Amino acid sequence: MANKFTLEEFFEKLKKYNVEELEGVRIEGDLEIEIEPGSGLDANVIQALAALAGYTQLIQEFGNFLYHTSMAFTYLQRLSNALGIQLPVGMAQPAVPAQQIQPAEILEKPRFEIPESLAPARFEPYKVEYPGVIEEVTLGATRADGGTRESVVTIGGERSLAFYNFDAQNPHTPVIAIDIFDRRPMLAKAVREHYEDVLDDPAEWARKAVKDFGADLVTLHLISTDPLLEDTPASEAVKVVEEVLQAVKVPLIIGGSGNKEKDPEVLEKAAEVAEGERVMLASATLDMDWERIGNAAKKHGHVILSWTQMDINNQKTLNRYLLKRVGIERDSLVMDPTTAALGYGLDYAFTNMERIRISGLRGDQDLNFPISSGTTNAWGARESWMIDSPIEGDTPWGPRELRGPIWEIITGMTLALAGVDLFMMMHPGAVAVVKDWMGMLSGAVKESIKDVDAWITMEV
Amino acid sequence: MKVKSPLEVYKFLPQTNCGECGYDTCMSFAAQIIDRSVKPTDCPPLVEKAKTDKKFEKKLNELIELTSPEVAEVVIGTGESAVKIGGEDVLHRHELTFFNPPPFFFDVWDTLDEAQIDERCKKVVEYRKFYVGDYITLEGIAVRCTSNDPEKFRSVAKKVSEYGKPMILISLNPECMRAALEEVADKKPLIYAATEDNWKDFLQLALEFNVPVTLRSKNLDTLKSMAKTFKDAGVKEIVLDPVTEPLGDGLRGTFERVVQLRRTGILGEDKDVAYPIMVTPIAAWLVEGDEVTKGYWEAVIAGTFIVKYADIMIFRNLEQYTVMPSVILRYNIYTDPRTPVQVEPGLREINSPGPEDPVFITTNFALTYYTVESDLSSNNIKGWLLVLDTEGLGVEVSVAGGQFTAAKVKDLIQQTGIEQKVNHKNLVIPGLAARLQGAIEDETGWSVFVGPMDSGRIKGWLEKNWPPESKE
């Protein structure tokens, strides 16, 4: 019985024998039906045919089945009865013979079943709980703790991802430190204009950062110690540390020049003069004498910033060295996994920090420390400071006074969402916006906009 | 995607290693399915057999089901400009990658005068930002019905459709929406929005015109309930808008709703909410303040939800100072973290250099390249920058791993014809490639100078070391 025959022939055969019922027959195969436009068939019938075909696999070879579809329908109906398949409700007996249906009209305006009411449903939010907790680190010390700060800052302590307070309430909103320098640095115009009057006076600069621009902390960079710049001796440079400690009463972060040979000495001296103040020393890195810097922090009761170059494994390694070999307390270590600016590696920085934070929350004891970000790096992106695009064909970049701050804002925000606890920033406008936004996401701001639909029809 | 390992996919494949798919083995094809670079239907034997053999058809369908993205995909628009949204599989980009960057739609409204509509549409159509070797463009236009006049909305929708960009039609009034759809439904716009009040009419419209539809509710029970209803009624392309509240506790609530929707859709496997999510930064224009404040706040909302799960967005501000950071953030977040981002190897001219200016070399790892390039250009250093193909690896790694070699440097010097462009043969190599100094000198015959470890220090380095004393 290897003969192939078309569906049409099949129906002809059935017809010939006047078959009304088939018993004990199983037919396997595919059925495809093509309907020629205007072949006189209701859309509903097509659906029924298609549905039926799905069950029955009527026949092996299909034909271009254009012929007498309505007749076919009758046979299908018989077949379906024979095979014990229910036709869709309402299809078993078409109200009118298929040929008489006005097809075009019905295909164009099908009737849709619109339910009377919404299907009941309940949204069950998926819960995520992490076994780990990020260490809490306090920067600054008040008189009670042997320092002279009037305020201290505590970061870390998270049990959930940044601003996921619906999983577990995180105890602290991230904080912002403003960068100041012990000599005039290279600054983008949009930043410089806010500090023009204090650029030669770090103490005044610190005061302005705190009083006018709302810095939670101040980061003092002793860049004049760079052998390629003034090469200020460490003992000389740290006098500025004392001045700044006098000038402001917020916690202090102290950075070197980034020179691998000089920084350990500079930070050691700084740790000495800041004894009792619980400053953060920025930073220990794998390619400089981290042991010496770590020891200085430990000896004088400071916090150490563990800085690696966008590599989660190096971050683990350096943290472990500082904890195990130097003996830094777990409440005295903060990580800087490196910040790249928006457009210049932000994706790497984001993912690196996000992975570090998730590892920490999952219980990795080498990575569950607060994260710091040098967000000021955003100003390295040419889009933040250049007058206009150097690329022909670019849509003009618009005023750079407005571009720069938002570059710093978006860089900071993105990394806040990855888990940053402490930002080092510069533009006062950027500091304000990031602060507002973090306050809102952590639930500190209660007011809202009432009519949130209004934008749909607003005529502005 | 329900399956996580190539082995689970392999079971469904013919296991003949016929190679017709372009991969040597069924196992490597399976691995490609897992990272979503191919689809089950890219296996020709499987597709062929499925046509005739019931058993294979079942296998194929099962595999398609198992490997389809967790979040449904929706297409808006037609032809080349059409945008695909949703289709995400993971909550963190390092777990795989994010797939479909959220398209940005900028609004016009039907009571705006014609010239202004044209001006805004043109800005969208003509926008270009050069980035990582290509131009970033904007995707679509959202037409808001502010007249509440069906005929007005119809004519403006038609006018905007002539710009050929995907559209979102915005009106809560079904009569206005119907008028616009009669005109432009064939362009497959997204309609916005079905709410608890108008959903019956919008369901009718979505079915009748066969267009994707946005469901809007702050209440996630209601939102899910609408999604279920629309799906059961036969609507396939659904977008969820959990309502963007621009400020304060409203913004916090929006963040929670968006995260919960996506997380419950993927990890909670709740298919009724596993649809693309809409966020409307344009809601920032409801806050008090001047245009800059509103524009800034719009970019802040956009930034938040580009990072966290928005699949499509509506904006107002067309000023470059907010558009540029938003498109670049989107680009960064949606870059595939599995492949290092590379730039074209070759020669770059920095600040229109002359024949006496220095020649530098760096790698084609995008991050390294852009750092060096921007350090040179922002310090006004004139120079020639050779970009070596290190397969997207940074200097340190490629020197150690053998992708940065003297022989390749020689080839690059020849290919770029740099010898004809400068009047010297002095090459500055990165400090991290210092150990290659001798080898490159031997191989190329150039004098090689070891530059600083960090390209940020090139300026100071040049002051001391350039022009070099001749070694010859």
Automatic annotation (TrEMBL), chain A:
<comment type="similarity">
    <text>Belongs to the CdhD family.</text>
</comment>
<dbReference type="InterPro" id="IPR004486">
    <property type="entry name" value="CO_DH/Ac-CoA_synth_dsu"/>
</dbReference>
<comment type="subunit">
    <text>Heterodimer of delta and gamma chains. The ACDS complex is made up of alpha, epsilon, beta, gamma and delta chains with a probable stoichiometry of (alpha(2)epsilon(2))(4)-beta(8)-(gamma(1)delta(1))(8).</text>
</comment>
<dbReference type="InterPro" id="IPR016041">
    <property type="entry name" value="Ac-CoA_synth_d_su_TIM-brl"/>
</dbReference>
<comment type="function">
    <text>Part of a complex that catalyzes the reversible cleavage of acetyl-CoA, allowing autotrophic growth from CO(2). Probably maintains the overall quaternary structure of the ACDS complex.</text>
</comment>
<feature type="domain" description="CO dehydrogenase/acetyl-CoA synthase delta subunit TIM barrel">
    <location>
        <begin position="136"/>
        <end position="388"/>
    </location>
</feature>
<dbReference type="InterPro" id="IPR051069">
    <property type="entry name" value="ACDS_complex_subunit"/>
</dbReference>
<protein>
    <recommendedName>
        <fullName>Acetyl-CoA decarbonylase/synthase complex subunit delta</fullName>
    </recommendedName>
</protein>
<dbReference type="Pfam" id="PF03599">
    <property type="entry name" value="CdhD"/>
</dbReference>
<dbReference type="InterPro" id="IPR011005">
    <property type="entry name" value="Dihydropteroate_synth-like_sf"/>
</dbReference>
TrEMBL record, chain B:
<keyword id="KW-0408">Iron</keyword>
<comment type="subunit">
    <text>Heterodimer of delta and gamma chains. The ACDS complex is made up of alpha, epsilon, beta, gamma and delta chains with a probable stoichiometry of (alpha(2)epsilon(2))(4)-beta(8)-(gamma(1)delta(1))(8).</text>
</comment>
<keyword id="KW-0479">Metal-binding</keyword>
<feature type="domain" description="4Fe-4S">
    <location>
        <begin position="1"/>
        <end position="65"/>
    </location>
</feature>
<keyword id="KW-0411">Iron-sulfur</keyword>
<dbReference type="InterPro" id="IPR023427">
    <property type="entry name" value="AcylCoA_decarb/synth_gsu_arc"/>
</dbReference>
<feature type="binding site">
    <location>
        <position position="21"/>
    </location>
    <ligand>
        <name>[4Fe-4S] cluster</name>
    </ligand>
</feature>
<dbReference type="InterPro" id="IPR016041">
    <property type="entry name" value="Ac-CoA_synth_d_su_TIM-brl"/>
</dbReference>
<feature type="binding site">
    <location>
        <position position="26"/>
    </location>
    <ligand>
        <name>[4Fe-4S] cluster</name>
    </ligand>
</feature>
<keyword id="KW-0808">Transferase</keyword>
<dbReference type="InterPro" id="IPR011005">
    <property type="entry name" value="Dihydropteroate_synth-like_sf"/>
</dbReference>
<dbReference type="Pfam" id="PF04060">
    <property type="entry name" value="FeS"/>
</dbReference>
<protein>
    <recommendedName>
        <fullName>Acetyl-CoA decarbonylase/synthase complex subunit gamma</fullName>
        <ecNumber>2.1.1.245</ecNumber>
    </recommendedName>
</protein>
<dbReference type="InterPro" id="IPR051069">
    <property type="entry name" value="ACDS_complex_subunit"/>
</dbReference>
<dbReference type="Pfam" id="PF03599">
    <property type="entry name" value="CdhD"/>
</dbReference>
<keyword id="KW-0004">4Fe-4S</keyword>
<dbReference type="InterPro" id="IPR016218">
    <property type="entry name" value="AcylCoA_decarb/synth_gsu"/>
</dbReference>
<feature type="binding site">
    <location>
        <position position="43"/>
    </location>
    <ligand>
        <name>[4Fe-4S] cluster</name>
    </ligand>
</feature>
<feature type="binding site">
    <location>
        <position position="18"/>
    </location>
    <ligand>
        <name>[4Fe-4S] cluster</name>
    </ligand>
</feature>
<keyword id="KW-0170">Cobalt</keyword>
<dbReference type="InterPro" id="IPR007202">
    <property type="entry name" value="4Fe-4S_dom"/>
</dbReference>
<comment type="function">
    <text>Part of a complex that catalyzes the reversible cleavage of acetyl-CoA, allowing autotrophic growth from CO(2).</text>
</comment>
